[in-house]
Amino acid sequence: MPKKIIKNKNIKKYILIIFSLFIIFLIYNSFPQKLNNILKNNYQSRLIEIYGYCSRDSYGFLQMIKNKYNIEKNPIIVNYKVLPNSIWTIYSPSKKFDIKPTIFLNYPENLNLVLFPNNNKIFVNKNDIQFSNGIKSISFVLKQDSIRLDNNITVYKIPNSKKIKIFEKKINQTITSGEKIDLNFTTENINSRWEKIYLEINNLDKNIEDKIVKIELQLEHKYDLSKFQILEKFENCYFIK
Amino acid sequence: MKEIILIFLQIIFLAIFFSNTFLQFNKKITINSLGFFGKTSMNLILILNIFLLLSFINIDLKILYLIFFGINFFIFIFNKIKNNTIYKLNIYFLLLIFLTFLISIDLANNLYLGWDAKFFWYLKSLNFYENQNFENLKNIPAFDYPHLGSYLWQLFWKYPFNVYEYHGRIFYVFLYTFSIFLLFENLEINVLKKIILILLTILITYSYNINFSGNQEILVFSLIIIATKYSFYLFYNEKKINRFEIILVILGASNLLAWTKNEALFFFLILIFSLLLTAKLKNNEKIIFILGSLLIIIFKSLIFWKFQTVLSSFEFQSTFGEINLINILNKIKVIIFYLTVYIIQIPIYLILAPTIFVIFFNFKIDSVKLYIFYFALLNFLFIVIAFLFAMQDVEWQARVGMKRVLFETSGFYLISLLYLIKKSIKFFK
Questions:
Q1: To the nearest whole angstrom, how far is the Cα of A71 from the nearest Cα of chain B?
Q2: What backbone phi and psi angles, to 5 degrees, belong to B278?
Q3: Do the chains contact at B123 and A46, CB–CB below 8 Å?
Q4: Cβ contact, residue pair A34, B118, below 8 Å
Q5: Which three-class secondary structure state does DSSP give residue B232?
Q6: Which of A85, A88, A194 sits opposite B396 (nearest CB)?
Q7: In what helix (H) or strand (E) does residue A176 lie, and over which residues does it extend?
Q8: Do B109 and A22 touch (CB under 8 A)?
Q9: Using CA atoms, how far apart are residues B242 and B258, in angstroms rounded to an integer?
Q10: Residue B70 CA neighbour count, 13 Å, CB half
């Protein structure tokens, strides 16, 4: 009899542990909220919530295009966000691919590469750039009105431990904050999906370096949408003919 | 509400589908003497291997699948009536359904696909979903990556309900929970303790992003657990299961591993090699293991050769082309750094490390301990070598991929828990 009591006590203890583990699992995974979300929002709206209508993968925009237009080929999609190609949302394995891009997602009006001081006369990009085919101009945001530069600037990237020089120019002039200096240099090397882009100013005086807040490279669009007939537009998402 | 009901029905469908085949009518099959999960695991390995073979055949398999599903359902009902067990409920079965349901709710809510899933796993799945053949996968990125996981994804998306994409991924959830239940089945400890172990294992291994975002690591994790569980029977076989059957299940799981992820082919070879070194196998058993492994490799190589597969996802040519000692040492430094960081980030390693420590220092060296030791040694050695040569940018590759690769084999180390319970049965009883 006493043995049985101990056993029963143990059973209660184990059941309590199991119950606690369940509670931890449910709370840790926010199960009630998730269940509620499924009950409240249908499948499509949940997908749009995750992948965006015209942001991130732009699932909503692509579904709209797929449903509204009779697309005979898998379109080539250009997404300016660094993500896997959004074709997965509307891909049809039985269709061939189109030959030129017709869908542009998260298309920025201006393509700017912004570089912030890192150390030792080197500036590093914070944002990624895709689908540019050249550098239009460069500008400096300064802590004071102007600085005097008489230095070589070099833009480069280092994929797989190999330095690739993208652009080099000597700048010898007084630079005012925000002023754009024309460069008009054609290159696709400036695009960087993974690697950092570095801008180095050779022999830069420490005093001058401290006065530079950031450097901006204004880039050329590889796809200038003003040259195409736009069939559908929603915010920064475009479907062109 | 419709979605919730369909999720539930999908799970019930999967459980019935895999738990019933003609195999259980054969009284000579000793695995039938195991519990529900043992029997089902044998069916599961067999059915998945059949699906793998069917995935290469370019015919509309709709009728075949419907017959297959129909027969299994008939066997389920027949067995229930024959054994008069219609109203009898197995607590583990109910718990399996319940836990799979909870995780599936997370899946249905989250829906998010990982990078590789969007890039090719989902596209491969779409290929089969739209009745395109195996060769058409060439039009999709990463043809050199295996297709089995994607094939199963579309299969259970299409059958039986053909409504939501994530129904296919509920199979991944089912396989994951199932493998954990299987691992702890037949342990001679009481029901409640077993349930605690199951819940704890799920708590420490569950993470949506690694497990269910459409990537295939969870399949490798689950299949390795199944193979590990059966390999444990080669050391401790109280149920007197025919060793030939055990070897067949391990080889069956190995074949599935080889077609789930490329690195998983090496994981199964490591597992079998470690078994050959440590389990007291008879000569004919060793021969079956070796021939079986060779057959799996030859079959995979033949498919690679027939479809002129190029390993385009890897950069072996350039990495092998620029071997120098300093470069290699620098890369090893990076790999070991990420190895350490990610081992700390994967709870199962953190929790099992003390268990392994305890069994290595508290009990005499025996074959199971050597098995764990060899597997761990070869596994980590393989990871270092693979990351050293697969891509040029080792840092990037280790940063984005190593955590998932480490997770894949982490299930194996749960064997240390089985061993500890076995050795300290009085304490755990």
A1: 17
A2: -115, -40
A3: no
A4: no
A5: helix
A6: A194
A7: strand A164-176
A8: no
A9: 25
A10: 6
pLDDT tens by residue, B226-235: 999 999 999 9
Overall pTM surpassing 0.90 (yes/no)? yes
Q: What token pair was written down for B41? A: 């695991």
Prediction ipTM score: 0.88
Query: Is A160's Cβ below 8 Å from some Cβ in B?
Result: yes
- In 3D space, the residue among A60, A45, A110 whose CA is nearest the CA of residue A80 turns out to be A110
CA-closest candidate to residue A194, choices A132, A134, A138, A125 = A125
Contacts with B110 from chain A: Cβ below 8 Å: 34, 50
CB contact under 8 A, B192 and A14: yes
pLDDT in tens, B180-216: 999 999 888 889 999 999 999 999 999 877 789 999 9
Residue B352, classed as helix, strand or coil, is: helix
Min Cα separation B49/chain A (Å): 25
pLDDT tens for B288-307 read 999 999 999 999 999 988 88
Q: A5 falls in which pLDDT band (50, 70, 90)?
A: very low
Q: Would you tell me the crossing angle of helices B217-233 and B415-423 to the nearest 10 degrees?
A: 30
User: What six digits make up the tokens of B237?
Assistant: 């076989």
A37 touches chain B (CB under 8 A): yes
Instruction: Determine which helix (DSSP H) or strand (DSSP E) holds A136, and give its type and residue range.
Output: strand A132-142
